[in-house]
């Protein structure tokens, strides 16, 4: 038993993570894959890693020093369950099984519960950054017990990405059981919203100014020097600058405009619905991908009426600056909503999640890495019980500054017939949140009318019902007595 850590599953993610682990001083890495050919290839390609390899679960488990720690990187779902049962049959109390795949956090909670009686620690661990991140430094979101993190934490710190600002490793113990996979899920949801907002900004500029993708790439490169600085803005410029070798056209013009999805965005929205958290920006981003992928409906609707004339901005430079401000304001809303979901999930499932720490571990290694995350960390450091990010002083000021442009851009888009679901819904959320009075009062009246669902009054305590089908007097009653 010579290895301090093992990796099961040596497809692209697992082999890169294993190589990353092996490249750090102090680690000896045991590797195992169901099909031995994959293991053999890895050993031939990377002799420098000094892997301890096995071709059976028995040998793999025997190669691990105690407490045994193994990271599973296999196909999420049945594959993960299969590997867990093989390891659990051979591990002892105090050993640690880590699932680094993209598991649904409900599965993670179930798996931990199943393993609890055995005394084996189970850690559901979100890993972000794709294959490149796995190799060079991902952002890592482990859940599981605090005790397991004592063993696992120091190892993860050696392989995690490091924040450019202060060199801190992008890993923290997120919370118990499914907390890590939950936070990874919300990370992906925020990623959907951020991408959709950037795509809407591009579309508005292209349609409103007639600039070419390469010219718009320069605009994004410029934006990347300011408060929007982020990996997603940076790669957007790269994608827009790319020319298709075959046709000589901008690549973005030859890519089919139907966006795919692997499901974590949808999970984020499903859970938000269950938790009652309005993540409207994320939901619109997921739905926008769904809409794009309905070619039959889009073809059938293509001749529905829109504005008679192609719209052009009067002052292109001014419009571009307005779009930038609308993008930043909408982005603040998307992140504010995402953190609301983390707060609600933590409450619901009993996790002690440090919001500021989450913002910090997203500063490098992951897809939504951005300068902006330092501001989020600062906001939660100043006020750990902040009720919404958007009301923190820095973000409030940013939105105050961007608000007029944001309104103008959304109104302009509506008049021009350019779809901006994420920009528009973010603004509607903002206006809903700040409204002194909402038409929710009328909804309560309607609910009481048809379902006797009762209502509260602004002027006195108690629960009331109007006898709608009788003489329409009001009676005081118990909540939802019907
Ligand atoms: P895949 O998701 O393609 O899974 C292939 C691996 O799973 C192979 O090693 C395969 O073994 C193994 N496997 C499948 N079923 C079983 C089983 N029943 N028993 C044992 N092993 C099994 O690999 P990836 O490297 O793409 O992804 C690994 C995990 O990481 C997934 O959960 C994925 O969702 C996640 N992921 C995360 C990303 C991120 O950015 N965080 C990006 C991509 C993936 P065999 O060779 O024998 O077939």
Automatic annotation (TrEMBL):
The enzyme's E.C. designation: 1.1.1.44
Annotated ranges, domain 6-phosphogluconate dehydrogenase C-terminal: 180-469
GO MF: NADP binding; phosphogluconate dehydrogenase (decarboxylating) activity
Pathway in which the depicted protein is active: Carbohydrate degradation; pentose phosphate pathway; D-ribulose 5-phosphate from D-glucose 6-phosphate (oxidative stage): step 3/3
Catalytic activity: 6-phospho-D-gluconate + NADP(+) = D-ribulose 5-phosphate + CO2 + NADPH
Keyword Flavoprotein: no
Enzyme class of the recorded protein, top EC level: oxidoreductase
GO term, biological process aspect, one: D-gluconate metabolic process
UniProt keyword list: Gluconate utilization, NADP, Oxidoreductase, Pentose shunt
Family recorded in the similarity comment: Belongs to the 6-phosphogluconate dehydrogenase family.
Protein name: 6-phosphogluconate dehydrogenase, decarboxylating
Species per Swiss-Prot/TrEMBL record: Agromyces seonyuensis
Gene from which this protein is expressed: gndA
Range covered out of full length: 109 to 590 of 590
